[in-house]
Structures are given as structure tokens and as C-alpha cells.
């Protein structure tokens, strides 16, 4: 179930901050047309941390309906503690998700023993497969490869999504999960070719919202063992990823800059109607959005018909 | 509204992990009898990060009903993004809270501008006063004293609860909020006397669950300017605080150790029925719980009749 | 030996970056006239990290000669590894220092066991008393109070200088070293009164270069138990400490801002000839230096005759 | 000058902690026989932070004499401030080094402007080329790729040694230094093949002390474009790198574990006489050393004749 290109979908919003389901349907269709192999709803890129529960559900319901079983739909169940995650995961199960993606607990100071308890409790209580999501920049804890290996070998987790940016650690995850059947996915936008070369089963790039065709080409080249071609595609995508550096970081934080640029690019391509992000994230300026649009165009990415 | 001793209540649980409302009523009564000046439901000490929304509500409802207006009830509205916090805050408003306590956004990478947006949006949307909660160990961001000062001067926030452990910074918060009418509360268990000497309006000590009489004596001494007496009380309480160091930290994380010891102490005093904490937190061993009980007894804190 | 006000001396430089011994003699005399109880040469404030060995020696030799035994002279022996520290410490011994001040090893990843080894080796090899220097902002490791207590009880260290800014931890150091004979010194500019109230033996404030008379008054008040007077003095000194926030932090780093302001203030008072700091630190602008001078003057600190 | 395999040499010590020049000559010859392309004396692996100046010089002198011009010798000039680095660099120049390797200033809080000043001052004062050394785990500051690019383009630095473990950042360094003539070296033991595939000019692996032949094979394969072969070699070396995880990390810190295992392996292979590391680093236990030796043997690395 967990392989290939699985973009973490942006959640398009109306001017008022409501989920724009028409745009989300369009985005889903755009990604499916590009040949992606799965859809991840409710990741950091999907602004799950900013969305109220009702909006999380609306987004998931919309994507499940639009995907209509063509590819698996993964749903983020991201929250601070086990019981909170469990409630999100059960709703996702009801809404038709095929797997849930879960970080270590955050906000509270826990150690490896509590993290193990967290995943074991979730696995025991859920029917859906659980994907362990390693994103230390947000969780401020790094899932240890040894622990991931153990959880994979006993089937508590079915996959790992590694957004640590640390390929040395990802290699250890690959080694430790070998033979377990658990898939290893990388969240890196710019090292996807190398991760695949090392044995990753799939990639979950936020930039995949903007250029899904590029990541599908990259993945297909790597799957055939043509790493030179994968690298060429990666090089082009890495340049495109420069859009996240357009916003003035003296004015806004890291997440406003990144998600604002993804949405500005999607709006420029005509995929979504409005580039608004959710509070407390701040929008790009008009000038910044125009520069993002220019970068998108110069990367050969025109409006989607 | 914000002054004196305002303990962040533990949330007693049954063996099955449900909110034990009878124990919570007993705890509330115990604190009121000790003369506390406010009650804070849904802080880190209250395991808000581990409690599902329904359990958060049950806890708040129980405390509001038991307090019956004798002292203000503050409710934590702790979540990752503005709209999520807003939903919690509105429920708290409906359930009878007198104020909401809100951290900076977490899990996502934000800067000062997004944090300002967060508090401004919440203030505009809510009728309850907003208390800014600075707890960098959990949020991985420190609320800048200058920003707190600005938000206080324009009445966006009505108080600051400082759990940074950084008294130099707290002094700056006192300076910057001077004249704004905003209260400054410290979350420190062991520097409460000094914080009061510097001008804090109140204290929010987790250990206040275990020995509320001690903290009330400390506060009253300080209020009368008898800092020598306050210091003596503080010295005794600091020794009692050693209960959080009983659990083997090679086995469990920081939060399991701290909350496990508070609950073991409350159970030893007969205030709550069961020392269970919520998943993924791990319990103290029987031996550790016995050592906590012994420390409590040796501090002269007997069973509550 | 370790009590009272022990300022960490700035190292005045000529325009060319050589040690300005005439200015250093003047600074030493200025501090002695103010009644300080010791002199600390070669701390972070003394730019030890920027000074070549020869310049470190020149500074120490100058201060030892000028002090002429009136008060003890402490010498920083700050370096990455044990043998390197040992060489510095032996030179300091030869040059007439009365004690050496030593941090944990840095630049390499060590744990508590190596830190213990470090201090034990130094103590065994030296005749001078060793002061453990806790400055996690620079060393990126916090000396654990329990370890400091053990080292103090067996006389491996003779004092602790705490520049962690963490008064909760300092309280633990006081508790753990009790009865050992080891002195506890705080490096805090703004919590000196509280540290003394809690039992600190002395204070080592960088700002003591600029206003030694103020810190001596603060210390003497606290020694007599007049903490209200100590607090008044502290309040004034905390306002003066605003000079370190004058420099534009978008332009220069933390250390350039702090040391640049100390030296600008000393130059404004006529104590040193030139405000230059050592490479790679960057100077204040003329405008920034003028603003520092104005703050110094408005604090009632005129030129020294 | 900067390409291929450039191992950061361990510094063999006698039982008493003196530099064992006979062993160091043997190690140098062993590496040259394996076909390495350069030698780096005085890196973290060489225990530069633990060696006194005289020992640093002895090590450099020994390697320069043994290499006798066959390959370039790079010398670490690692210290906290510019003038201190300058003194080390000048001594290295006198002793025959071909380049100096320099980190950002550490121990003091500096920003990008001071780091730029640091490298510019060193470049202006030295005749040797300067290699910028990015090792955030030790320096607690990450050299920004944009700054490295600018310094490379104006020839202030001649190469970058990246020991950040962050391949995304390394890719940016490659991009920003393109066309400057500056070489890009990776310090990664386990991602060397990928770094070379991305365009790295060389590799500086600490494990290259133990198995230089392996890294030379890896490099030569990559140079011919045979990345599959490079990857096979890398896989074997990554397994061998498990020796750094043998020591009990509850007992010793990261650096004791890593350097202790390198030296135990070199002693097991008969290259050096004694596995001692320098204070404050702690030795492996006899049992740990035996397990390292067994891992080395099972990797097919026998005694060197």
C-alpha cells in the first residue's frame, strides 16, 4: 500500500478560512491525473495543526470521495497524547482512510518508553495500519531507528515516514526495518532520488502538490534503476523548491513561508482558487506571491487546463 | 482576578483511565479548604495533552460546579493552532470558566509575528480574558517579554503565566507589563518567594496540589512583606519537591516522573483514589510510589480527613 | 577567598588590538577603589576566547601586579580539553593567580563521566584551587548540581561560578555543596540580590566593570540582611544593564553587543582609552556607542577622575 | 589539492599520553599505502581539542615528514577566536602544512557577520589556503550555505569540509560554490557514495583510519561513475562503522565511544601500539575493545603486516 509518490495534500481554503472543497477536489484530481500512488491528507503541509476537527474531517471526506479507491488515502492523526490521537484515528477510519499517520507524543516531555507505549496502544486499538511519522523539527524528539525497527518487526507500525532530513538516520531505519514488511517513505523534497537509491519505498514531498508530474517521473526513473534520470529530475525540482525561500523571513516564520509559497504556486497554476493559509500563519505579500508565480512559470509549469 | 495561589489541578483518573469526578471534587474541595485563590484546570499538570476533549470538559465542568463561584476558574485551551484553541476556549466559556490560558502555537514553526496574530485573533473572538502561558520546555518557543508587554498594554492579554523557570526573563515581563493591569504569575515551585518579592501577583505551582496549605502560607507571608517567613516555607516546599526525582529516569520520561509523583502523593494523602496517569505516561513502580509516600509523610503531610 | 564582588575584568585593547596595559591598570585600580573583593581575569567578559596566549598572560600579569595582593586574583583557564586547560592553569599559577576558573570540556561531545575526570585530573595536578564555571550558553553543557556537589564535598573544586541564569539550579548547587566549604558565586547581573538572599557567597557581574560601586553597595546591603536596599540597587543596575541591548542584533551577535557596550561605557567614563573588542567581535557603531554613553550618564555614572 | 580520500588521522598516544610518533608514522604509511589522496592532521578525530599545542605540533611534524610531499597535508587550526586560530595556522604553515582547516568561532555567541569577519581576517593574514569546516555538533553553529558560497566566490576559502551530516545543506553548498573553484568535501562515513554522486570532490571519513582501502575503492568506483559498486563498498563500511556503538553510552560520552573504537580497531590491526585516548576522554573497557576487534576481523580486516 505504501509506495511511490504520496503527496501530502495542501488544504485549500476560501477567503474566509473555510475548507474549499471544490479546490480540494480539483487538487486531488490533478494529483491523480499525474499518476501519484497515494494521497496523504492531514500532514503538516495540510495545515493539520491549524485546522479544527470539523475541517480536518471535511478535507479527508472530500479526498476519499474524489479518490474513490483509485489509490490509498493516508490520514494524519496528529495530536499531543495517545487518547487524542486515538479519537482522530477512529474518525479517520470511519471516514474511509486506509492508514493513519502518527507522530510521537509532543508538548509533554516523554522518553522512548512512552513513545513505545503510544504506538503499541494505538496499534492495539485500531484496525487501520499505523505509519510512524518522524518530524523532529515539529515534535522536538527524533524517533530512534532502533525503536522503529523493533516496532516494525512486531507489526505495530506498517510504515515509517521520515521527515527528519537526516539521510544517515534514514539509512538506519531502512536497515532496522529490513524484512519486516514495513515500508520506508521519505519526506524530503530534495534528496528523494538518493533516498530511493538507498531503498526507500516511496516519497511524500510537499512540493509534490505543485509539480506531481515531476516527482512521478523521478520515482519511475528510480524504480527502473535509471538514477541518472532521477537525479536530473531531482535537480530541477530542487531549483523549484526555491519558492519556499521567497517570503521575507524577517516578517514571517518558516511555516508561513513554505505553505504560503505552495499555495501561491497552486493558485498560479489554477489548481486552487485562493492562496490563503490558516491562522496563525501569515500570507505572502502580493509581491512575494508574484515572485513565486514567476518561478513556477520559469520552471515550465503552466496553468492546468 | 489573577492573584494568590492558583494550583494547576491534577486530573484524577479511575483505573480504566476515565476522569474520576468524585476524586476531582475531593481535590477541589481540599484546595479550597486550604485557601487557594483560584483554580487552573487543564494545564500540563492536569494532563491536558493526554486528555480527550470529552475528558477535558468533564474535568472543567466538575471543578466549576465544585468551586461554585468561590474563586475564579481558569481553563487551559492548549492546542497547536488558532482555530483549534478557539474551539476549546469557546467550550470552556460555555462551561463556566472565568479565563482561558493559552500558549503560543506549537508543532509548527512560527515566529513572533504569527504568535502576535494568534493572541490578537483569540482576543477578538472571545469574551473571556486570555492568559498567555509561557512554557518553552513544552512549546519550544519562548514568549518574548517585549511582545508580552505590548500585548498586555493593549489589553489583548490579561495575565502572563510564566513557567519558563527563567527569573531574569520574568523580571523583564514584570517591567514590560507594568501599568497595563495585566497580572504576572509564576509557575515555579521553588522560586515562588523570590518571584513574589519581585512583584509577581500569584503563583501556579503543580506541587500546590500536594501541599496547598504550604503555598498559601508562603503567599500570605510574602503579601505581608515577611519574606524571611516566605523563604522558610519555600525551603520546606523545595525539599518536598524532591518527590519528582524519585522515579527512575532511565525508565520513564520527565512528565511520567513528575505527574506520577504528584498523583502518588495525593493518593497517599487520601485525596484521590488512584494514582494512574493517562497514556502514554507510564506509572511509578510500587516501590517508587512508596518512596514518594514516605517523603510526603516525612514532610509532615498526613492523610486528609 | 571567594566572596563579595569579583568582577570579570574586561581586557582593554589598543586600536591595533594589543592589550592596553595602562588602561587595564586603570580599570584594576578603579575596581579596587570601589571596594571589590576579588578580581577575575580571563572570563568570557575578558574576551579570553579571543585572546592569544601571550595576551592572556599579559592581562593576568598586569592585574596581579596592580592588585598587589590586596584582593585575590582568579584566572580563567578556559579551553577545550584537560591538557590544554592544565597548561593555561600552570602558567596562571606561575604568574601569581590565586585560583583558576575552569569550564567543562567543550567542542567535543562528552558526558558527566568525562567532566568528572576533567576536574579530578586538574585538581590532582594543580596546587591552586579550582573554581567550576557553569556557563551553558557557551559550553552547551550544564554542570549538574549533583556532580558539583560531589566534587565540592571531596574538595576537588573549591567554588562554583554559576552563569547559567537558572536560579532553580543555583539553589540546588547551594543545597548540594552545603557543608563542603566550597563557595557559590553567581554570574547574574540582574538577580544578584536574590542569589545573595538565597545564600550565594559572591557575585561576578560583567556589568561590575562599569559600575563596581553599585554592586559593592548591593553586596554590602545584602550582607547586612537589608534585602530591600539590595533590591533597590539591583533595580538600578538592571536598568543600566539595558546597555547590552543597544547594538543592532540584526547586524552583530550577542557577544559583540554585550562586550561592545561594556567597553563603550568604560571609555565614556574615562576608565579605558579605547572601546575596541578583539576579532572576530565587531564594534558598536558610533551612534550605538553614543547611546550607551548617554545611558551611562543618565544612570548617574560620570567620568572617573 | 582537495580531492579524493583525505582521512582525518587519529593521534596515537603512548600509555602516558604522549604522542607516539612511531605509531603515527606507521599509521601515515598505512594510509599512503592504501592510496589516500591527502592527510588531515588535527581534526576532531585527531583529538585536537584534547592535545596541547606541543603535541599538536609533534603530530603535524611527524605526518609532514612521513608523507614527504606524496600527498597534501591539511592541518586543523581549531580554536575559539580569530587570533588564536591565526597562531595555530602560522605554526602549521611553518611546519609544512599545505592548508589549514578552520571552524567558525565557538564558545562565544557570534552571528554570521562575525563568522565572515573571522574567515576574511584569516585569509588576509595567511598564505595557506583556508578550508571552512562545518561541524555544528561541536561548534553549535551551522555555517550557512549562502555565506560559504560568498566566501568561496571571492576566494576567501578554498574548500568546505562538511561534517554536518545534512545532505540537503551539502547540496546547497555544492550549488552555491559552483564555479568558484572551491572544493566540497564530506565528513560523512556512511553517505560518502551519495555525496560523491552529488558532486563532492572528496571525503574525510574518520573510519578511513581503520579501513582506508575500502574508502579508496569507494572513491575510485564513484569517480568512474560506477555508483552501484560505490554503494556496495559503502554498505560494507557502514556496517563496520557499527564499532562506534560498542561502548556503553551510559558510561561514556559520544566522543569517548567513537575515538575509543577507532583506536581499538587500529590497535587490533597492529597499526598503532596503544588504544589510549587523551583526557578527559575515557577508554573502552577490555570487553568493549575485544568486541571492536571482533567486528573488525569479521569485516575481513586482518592485521597489517
Automatic annotation (TrEMBL), chains A, B, C, D:
SUPFAM superfamilies: Aldolase (SSF51569). GO terms for molecular function: 4-hydroxy-tetrahydrodipicolinate synthase activity. Keywords: Lyase, Schiff base. Pyruvate binds at residues 45, 204. One of its GO terms (biological process) is small molecule metabolic process. It comes from the Bacteria. The active site is at 133 (proton donor/acceptor), 161 (schiff-base intermediate with substrate). InterPro entries: Aldolase_TIM, DapA-like, Schiff_base-form_aldolases_AS. SMART domains: DHDPS (SM01130). PANTHER family: 4-HYDROXY-2-OXOGLUTARATE ALDOLASE, MITOCHONDRIAL, DIHYDRODIPICOLINATE SYNTHASE. Belongs to the DapA family. This is 4-hydroxy-tetrahydrodipicolinate synthase.
Amino acid at each position: 500500500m505504501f509506495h511511490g509518490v504520496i503527496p501530502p495534500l495542501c488544504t485549500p481554503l476560501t477567503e474566509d478560512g473555510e475548507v474549499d472543497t471544490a479546490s480540494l477536489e480539483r487538487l486531488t484530481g490533478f494529483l491523480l491525473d499525474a499518476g501519484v500512488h497515494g494521497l496523504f491528507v492531514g500532514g503538516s503541509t495540510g495545515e493539520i495543526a491549524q485546522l479544527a476537527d470539523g475541517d480536518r474531517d471535511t478535507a479527508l471526506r472530500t479526498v476519499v470521495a474524489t479518490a474513490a479507491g483509485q489509490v490509498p488515502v493516508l490520514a494524519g492523526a496528529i495530536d499531543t497524547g495517545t487518547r487524542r490521537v486515538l479519537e482522530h484515528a477512529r474518525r479517520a477510519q470511519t471516514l474511509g482512510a486506509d492508514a493513519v499517520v502518527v507522530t510521537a507524543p509532543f508538548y509533554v516531555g516523554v522518553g522512548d518508553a512512552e513513545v513505545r507505549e503510544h504506538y503499541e496502544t494505538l496499534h492495539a486499538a485500531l484496525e487501520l495500519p499505523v505509519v510512524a511519522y518522524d518530524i523532529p523539527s515539529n515534535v522536538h524528539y527524533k524517533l530512534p531507528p532502533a525503536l522503529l525497527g523493533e516496532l516494525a518487526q512486531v507489526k505495530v507500525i506498517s510504515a515509517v515516514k521520515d521527515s527528519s532530513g537526516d539521510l544517515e538516520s534514514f539509512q538506519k531505519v531502512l536497515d532496522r526495518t529490513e524484512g519486516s514488511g514495513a515500508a520506508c517513505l521519505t519526506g524530503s523534497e530534495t534528496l528523494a532520488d538518493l533516498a530511493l537509491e538507498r531503498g526507500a519505498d516511496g516519497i511524500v514531498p510537499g512540493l509534490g502538490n505543485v509539480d506531481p508530474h515531476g516527482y512521478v517521473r523521478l520515482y519511475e526513473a528510480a524504480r527502473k534503476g535509471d538514477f541518472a534520470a532521477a537525479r536530473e529530475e531531482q535537480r530541477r525540482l530542487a531549483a523549484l523548491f526555491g519558492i519556499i525561500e521567497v517570503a521575507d523571513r524577517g516578517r514571517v516564520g518558516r511555516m508561513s513561508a513554505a505553505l504560503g509559497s505552495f499555495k501561491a504556486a497552486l493558485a498560479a497554476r489554477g489548481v486552487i482558487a485562493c492562496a490563503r493559509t490558516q491562522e496563525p500563519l501569515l500570507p505572502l505579500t502580493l509581491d512575494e506571491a508574484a515572485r513565486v508565480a514567476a518561478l513556477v512559470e520559469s520552471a515550465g509549469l503552466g496553468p492546468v487546463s
